[in-house]
Amino acid sequence: MRIDPAKHGWLNEPETQAVMQALGEARFVGGAVRNALLGAAVNNIDIAVPVPPEESIRLLEAAGFKTIPTGIDHGTVTAIKNGKDFEVTSLRRDVATDGRHAVVAYTRDWSEDAARRDFTMNALYATADGEIFDYHGGIEDLIAGRVRFVGEPRARIAEDYLRILRLFRFHAWYGKGDMDADALRAAADAKQGLKQLSGERIAKEMLRLLECPNPAPVLRVMAASAILSEILPFALQWPRLEQMIQLDADNFFAPDPILRLAALLPDDPMAARTVAERLRFSTADRERLEDLAGGGARALSHLPARDIRRLLYELGVPAFTDRVRLGWADAPPGSNAIPWRMLLSVAASFKKPRFPLTGREVMAAGVPEGPRVGKILTAIEDWWIDQDFPDDETALAEKLKDALRSPE
């Protein structure tokens, strides 16, 4: 089997050809080969080379590539040209592992490199002209939708416990039917090893899993094998998540992993904060998850238009849209979709009104610079929002006069 360059434009791009020519005996590896065989988009191009990283850098820079030693301790260099980047990794074999990290040695043996990769469908290599090298039956597994470890599952998981989560993530994206029984048993038996992993590594795998078209079946298997509770130790809201997934498919919404996580978690800001802190989320993602856990999404479909505009002004369009999508997923199955679609339409066309008063104007009216200026602005803005954002200069001037007359 080959990858036909005529059907895969990424193979023919000048930068791709240039990097392969610069490296000589190099092969594409992993996701690019896997996705090309499936006819899926190839967004990231990883390349394997039978030379140490220092030699890769020398060859790439001689060909005009910028190089960044992104993972130099493990043989990985990022090559950049004309805004396109490639991860170039030296062939490796594991010398020692501890469940989180590996000590590697470089090799020129392609089969040794293939043997250290996690799944057979990731141990696929292709030359610049599309010739495929398959050392472990990866093509057959890929076609069958079978996510199978290279080698004995227990041993491979013990090398890096993140492979537990990768097993579920890859099955969610590429698997068909039941999961590999040996792999599932090994993952369940090794679940305590997840405690050794950093929050960032767990988050990366979990969010990728949640982003697949339908992660619910795999998440349920994780729950049944007591793996999911190691990460989300709460009473989970399965019907809400499953309804959100269905709504995403029916309405062509882009899957949003943070939103789906919020749908699965209980309506408890403390639970949301616990998860966000364990997974080392950014401040923005943590605050987003906590806001959605506050239970403010349920009554949206019954709000009058005036209150909807107020919420859009106060929350902003992204946060309001989050609440609508979560509220819709929380609605009884078969509920009227029209109010929810209308809310999303209103949000899409909303332009935030500009509050027509500034601190400079308050000071021009006789208020000295200081805290009172802010208090007056806040009070008048609250009135302006309550009045549904009137464009009335006279009323605003009268309100300012009232504020000036009131005691500080």
* Number of helical elements: 21
**Strand sequence of the main sheet, in spatial order?**
3-4-5-2-1-8-9
Shape: elongated
Overall SS class: alpha+beta
Poorly predicted parts: none
In short:
The chain has 21 helices and 9 strands.
Q: What's the layout of helices and strands?
A:
Blueprint: H1 9-12, H2 14-23, E1 27-29, H3 31-38, E2 46-49, H4 53-62, E3 66-71, E4 76-81, E5 84-90, E6 92-97, E7 102-106, H5 110-115, E8 124-126, E9 132-134, H6 138-144, H7 153-159, H8 162-174, H9 181-189, H10 199-210, H11 216-224, H12 238-251, H13 257-264, H14 269-278, H15 283-292, H16 305-315, H17 317-330, H18 338-349, H19 359-364, H20 371-386, H21 393-405
Parallel strand pairs: 2-5
Antiparallel strand pairs: 1-2, 1-8, 3-4, 4-5, 6-7, 8-9
Helix pairs in contact: 8-9, 8-10, 8-11, 10-13, 12-13, 12-17, 13-15, 13-17, 14-15, 16-17, 17-18, 20-21
Protein architecture, described:
Strands 3-4-5-2-1-8-9 form a seven-stranded mixed beta sheet. The chain has a two-stranded antiparallel ribbon with strand order 6-7. With 408 residues, the chain is of the alpha+beta class. Helices cover 51% and strands 11% of the residues. It contains 21 helices and nine strands. The chain is elongated, with a radius of gyration of 27 Å.
